[in-house]
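Appendix B, example 12.
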Amino acid sequence: MDKAVMFFQQMVDKGVHPNIVIYTHIIHGYCTLGEVDKACDLFQEMKQQRVKPNPVAYLTLIAALCRIGRLEDAMHIFTQMIDHGVPPNKAVYCCLIQGFCTHGGLVKVKELVSEMISKGMHLDVMFFGSVIDNLCKEGNVMKAQWVFDFVRRIGLSPDIIMYSSLMDGYCLIGKMEKALRVLDSMVSAGAG
């Protein structure tokens, strides 16, 4: 990353204007290293240089902010994206939903899912299965249960992986009776 930044700075110093691809690569590099503030600064610099962010640049920054729980900042970038005429795609929505599931704001999850559905984007069980699994592994079983119930409310049928993750989650926190209830529910639903 140090060499990439050095070459980037040399370009700028020599009057070569970086394009969106170069900016996005450097932003991605910062995000990968966990240097999200540097990525945000470069994102702002890019806009000041009149380089219009593309969906990949927005997604990269939103995903990084969501991973570290900076949801307010992620929503600010999301709003900028819309305001600048760049329509958010399914990947952007999924990052935000994952972020709000993990770091709070389950009401916002409903809002984002409703927005996606109204735009004709379809959610799949596999995405929510991943969210539930991650929440359970982190010990956030109550949030995982909420997501599981939400999946049912929006008309999706939980798969065996979702049931298994939820059972594992309850077992991890010592709630064996709830784990058995999930097993019974899985058998009743014919998912097992």
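DSSP finds eleven helices and no strands in the chain. Residues 124-192 form one domain.
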